[in-house]
Fold this protein.
Amino acid sequence: MAGNFYAVACPDCENEQIVFEKVASEVSCVVCGHTIAHPTGGTATIEGEITDAVEAR
C-alpha cells in the first residue's frame, strides 16, 4: 500500500493523532471533534501541523 502516516496536531486543542495521508473519509479529532483531514481523491487536505512522519514497516 502506497502512502504515509503522519502525526498531526489538532489546530484547536493540540491533541496529536496519527492520520493516513490518503484518507477516504473525514477524520475528526477524538478530543474536540474538529475535522483535521479532508479526502480529495488523492493526498488529503490536512488541517493542523504535521509534527512527525511515521515510517512504514
In short: The chain has a mean pLDDT of 91. The longest strand covers residues 49-54. The radius of gyration is 11 Å.
